[in-house]
Structure formats: structure tokens, C-alpha cells
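Progress against Task 2.4 (sequence-to-structure conversion) is shown through the following example record, which the project officer requested during the mid-term review.
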Amino acid sequence: MVDDGSGSNVSIPSFLMFKGDADRVKEQLANNHPVQIEMTWSLPSPDNHVEYDFWTTPYDSFSRPFLTEFRPIAEVLGERANFTPHMFVFDGYAMGCVGEDGENYCPYECTNNGRYCLPFNSGASEIGLSGKDFVEESLRRLCIWKHYGEGDGIGRPWWIYVEEFMNECTVPKDFGNSKCVNIIYKRAGIDETRIDQCMADGGGLEGDVTNILLDQEVTTAYIRGIIFLPVATVNTAPIEGQLSASTIFHAICTGYSIGTAPRICSQCAGCMNATECVMNGGNCISRYGGIAIPQGTVSHSTFTVTIFLLVACLGGISYWYYKKTRREMRDHIRGILAEYMPLEDNDRRMEATMSFGSSDPTTSTQGFMSS
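C-alpha cells generated for the chain above:
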């Protein structure tokens, strides 16, 4: 299901659930347990390898959760999942920023005589920034990926650069500051000269020339139908909704053919925080619809006291049951004895009477006859 841009007009989204599933959700909510429901569609899963893309811009704040949390997942998936970042730039021709005489009609938003643009807010010039600064940063990230990520599809230096840039080179203070960028280069292990040469070889950002890398992004965005940001695709299928690290991780795991997904997919299936699960070696801290249960956080003293109380409780229950059983057994035996005691008394009376009245049958008969 692809959004054509009008999806935001639906203000009351809804979907139907089976009653059995709904009852389980209501039960969790009634006990004040958090519940997260995920609605997914099937994804193309042709083989044991997944390709995923992510479209963003340097000033897209909605991309921050994914860009700052996904690196551990990208590294653990390794070459089983090939990542390609895309930097969205507007087509200056479509925006009317390229004049017939080659003049740049949008000097604050576009580079290369109006060819590549990123409109920024009207107050950009007041803080010393313009859309051209964001186009330059977009080109820089494309070159970093070209040299430090395209080969293995993982791009650890690219992830580190983006994370550090978003934390250090913030808007408007240090954005576009070459000194800040160079510091991040060193942290990520990136060769500054190599990146500068790449940006220049592609066509640069000045003059009435085409930049190969930026032009490719404009063309690809048009072919893919990218009209809103951020957007992620897994095996070319767009992922809708909140683009968190966990959402994209589970989508990637769905993209493998049956029985070929990496082990980490089954270990972290249903985890609310996939990044945390991956960093914990595949140990899921909390699952959808459940209670977060931290692992390995119980102190020795707490454990000892808990075991002592448990043993004491079981000992008390065992002693009570022992006394109860003996009492019931004594009552049962007394009941049996009470039923047989009257019979024994009657037998004794009969024996005593026979002994008194007829101890010698011959004498008794003769005595009776004489009288």
C-alpha cells in the first residue's frame, strides 16, 4: 500500500481485529501494561539477502531516531543486508529555479545555477544558513558512502559520521562549519582529502555544470516516486508509519525468504527496542504486549533474601500440612474404634452370662429336674 501524498488527509485511521486478539490486548491494558500493535504487509522475500534504502535530508529531524540508533543493527546484519542511503534534493528545473539564460533564480536554495535545491525556512539567511549549505552536506554524505560504505553495504564510518554530525554540528551553530566537520572526519576514520576530491570530481557545486551524484539522486527519486520524507524501502517495498530502528529491523527480517533469516531476527522478534536487544547479544528485554523485565539487574542480597523467604514460606506450609494430616489421621482412627467398641462390650457380656448360668450343663439339668 503506497501513499500518494494524500494519506495525511485521513484523520481517523482504524482497522479491525479478531475478538480473541482484541481480548488479549484489553487484558493487558486493564492491568496497566503497555501494548504496542504493529500492522504489517507482506514484503518481497526472494532470497537470503535483503536490500534496504533510506531517504532523508541533513535537516530532517524525523530521521534522527533511525540514524542514531540503527548502526549496531546494520553491523550485526553484516553483508546479509545491503544498505543504501539516499539524500533527497529537489529538481531545480521542476521548481523553476533555472532561467533560460542559465541564471539561478533561487540563489539561497540551489546550487549549480539552480539545478539542485533544498528549500529552507525564510529565516535561514538571518542565522547564516541557506538551502545551498544543506545541498553541500548532502553531497558530502553521498561521497562518504561512496568510499566508505558502497563496497560492503554496511558503511560503519558513514554511520559514525552521521551520528556524530547530528550531535556535534547542530543547526545553526556549527552546521557547515569545516572545523566541526574535520573533527567528525577524524572520529569516523574518514580521509578529508578523499571526500573533497569526490565532491569535486562529481561536478562540484558551482557553475552551470551537472553534478553526477546529485543528478543520480534526483533521477532515482523521480523513478521511485519519492514525494515525502523520510521514507525507507525494504526490497523496494516502502515502509509506512514511524521509521524507528526497530520498525525497519523487523521489516528487514520479514524480507528474507523462509528459513534464511539471520539468527538475530528470531532472537529479537517482537522486541520493542531492537537496538537494545542487538547490543545485549540477542537478549530481548521487553516484547510487544508484555512487561519490560530487565535481565541481570538483581543484586546478590536481594536474591539471598528472596530465597530465604521462599524456603521459610515452604517450610511453614509443609509443617502446617504435616500437623493437619496427623490430626485428621487420629480423628479417623478414633472414629473406627468408636464403631467397634460396642460390639466388643456385647461379646463380653454374653460370655459372662454363659459362664455364670451354664458352666456345667449336666448339673444344671439335674438340679432343675429335682425341683
